[in-house]
Specification:
Layout: E1 2-7, E2 17-23, E3 30-31, E4 36-41, E5 46-50, E6 55-60, E7 67-69, E8 73-79, H1 104-109, H2 134-142, H3 147-151, H4 164-176, E9 188-189, E10 195-196, H5 220-235, E11 238-246, H6 248-265, H7 272-285, E12 291-294, E13 297-300, E14 306-308, E15 310-311, E16 317-318, E17 321-322, H8 330-345, E18 359-363, E19 382-386, E20 390-398, E21 401-417, H9 423-438
Parallel strand pairs: 14-18, 18-19
Antiparallel strand pairs: 1-8, 2-4, 2-7, 3-6, 4-5, 6-8, 9-10, 11-21, 12-13, 14-17, 15-16, 19-21, 20-21
Helix pairs in contact: 7-8, 7-9
């Protein structure tokens, strides 16, 4: 028999870790090649990890809710093979910032004393939205930090996660008897150096639950969405601008070509790829909207990657990204939109499908809404909402004078980050998108 080491596979650009959501196979179970072994999750997408070999699952090396780095061995599988092929050693990671299993010597390297002997308090994730690495959990256990105490330490890592340095800084502050870097503003250091936390009381934002109410616990994705939206509002001062566009030519053109297009391509052409094409052109015209902010630095993006908000059957929201949208034809955009939308609805998106967006489009018109004020998808600086297209009486300017006619009209609304996008830039950009839609060539070939 041989032992195959199942590694956490690479899951796309900029994805370095994933959370073990659920093991689909138990130790001792038979696994076939390409059969899913476990579900993992990055910030927004859940996906399966298949087995590259057939055999018997011998051992889990990570528990559910643990965070594993790309390349970590997460399980072992016993396969039929020669003894010489006993193990497939994983390639050493190029960048390792923290060892997987901490020890006392690691604490000494940072200048801290070895932990004094004390009863180890079990550390469990207290139901929040943050994840903790095995290193942080192990240090917390050795130092007697409870799960509730760990939850209240201010995290400086990605998505507010507690890093090794955060917990070591907290331990140093606690040892000195000073104010601890906790997120709760109500904690008051007592004379003995311990921390007094008053009992929670009902206040602003506290829901009152009556016996007839139903309590529904947020799932993991909804918790992440909630955290992401709150952070966006806290980070970026939102400003919203609106324009109304006459898209009569666009509607008439789509009505003219949609049957032939579906017959030729085997799929429908919707308005979404048309909107994305207009946004891509406008971003080329106004590149200072295609940016992100890093402290006091403005990062001007070379690529135009358009995220499109998609509602899932579960009621949650995901934003798959069309990479280099400005380089695709309208047919290419249509196929990309349909592919991502179908895979989103069927929970088949890969982590890389939601990464590296530079601007987001949300089609609220699909639900009959005329306009909205969407929240910016960080770290982007703007998001465009397109409303429903409705027939309205409108003034038409002709060489013979003004006339009243029935036109197809829609509202475009854009929220943008006033730290870096002022009203003049935001307004001109939004008007340029509307111009591209209004000036649609009725005779365009596709």
């Amino acid at each position: 028999m041989a032992i195959h080491q199942l590694q956490l596979p690479r899951m796309g650009e900029s994805v370095s870790e994933a959370t073990i959501v659920k093991w689909l196979k138990q130790p001792g179970d038979r696994i076939e090649e390409d059969e899913p072994v476990l579900e993992v999750a990055t910030d927004k997408v859940d996906s399966d990890v298949p087995s590259p070999v057939s055999g018997i699952l011998k051992e889990w090396l990570f528990a559910e809710n643990d965070v594993a780095q790309v390349g970590d061995v997460i399980a072992t599988i016993e396969t039929e093979g020669a003894e010489t092929a006993m193990e497939q050693q994983p390639e050493p990671a190029q960048e390792i910032t923290e060892p997987a299993i901490p020890g006392i010597d690691q604490l000494e390297e940072t200048g801290h004393d070895a932990p004094a002997a004390r009863p180890a308090a079990p550390v469990t994730d207290p139901g929040g939205t943050r994840f903790y690495s095995p290193l942080v959990k192990s240090i917390a256990t050795q130092e007697g930090i409870t799960g509730d105490e760990l939850e209240r330490i201010t995290g400086t890592g990605a998505e507010g996660r507690v890093t090794k340095q955060d917990i070591l800084d907290y331990l140093e502050t606690r040892k000195d008897g000073g104010a601890s870097p906790l997120t709760s503003p109500t904690e008051i250091p007592a004379a003995t150096g311990t921390v007094y936390t008053p009992e929670p009381s009902a206040g602003p934002g506290t829901a009152i639950v009556s016996p007839s109410d139903e309590i529904i616990e947020m799932d993991r994705m909804r918790r992440l969405i909630a955290e992401h939206m709150v952070k966006s509002v806290q980070i970026a001062p939102h400003v919203c601008s609106f324009v109304e566009a006459d898209v009569t030519n666009l509607v008439n053109w789509r009505n003219k070509v949609k049957a032939a297009y579906e017959k030729r391509e085997g799929e429908k052409i919707t308005f979404t790829p048309i909107f994305i094409e207009a946004v891509s052109k406008a971003l080329r015209d106004f590149p200072m909207v295609n940016i992100s902010v890093n402290g006091t630095q403005i990062i001007k993006k070379r690529n135009i990657n358009i995220g499109m908000a998609a509602a899932l059957p579960s009621g949650n929201l995901v934003v798959p990204v069309i990479k280099r949208a400005d380089q695709l034809s309208l047919v290419g955009l249509s196929k990309a939109v349909n592919d991502l939308a179908n895979r989103a609805r069927n929970s088949q998106l890969k982590p890389d499908d939601t990464q590296d967006g530079t601007f987001t489009l949300t089609n609220i018109g699909a639900f009959g809404n005329i306009m909205g004020t969407p929240i910016i998808n960080q770290p982007q600086v703007a998001i465009l909402a397109v409303g429903t297209i409705t027939k309205k009486p409108a003034v038409i300017e002709t060489e013979y004078g003004d006339m009243i006619g029935i036109r197809h009209m829609m509202y475009l609304s854009m929220s943008y980050d006033h730290r870096v996008v002022d009203g003049a830039l935001g307004g001109r950009f939004l008007k340029r998108v509307a111009d591209y839609l209004e000036n649609w060539d009725i005779n365009r070939e596709i």
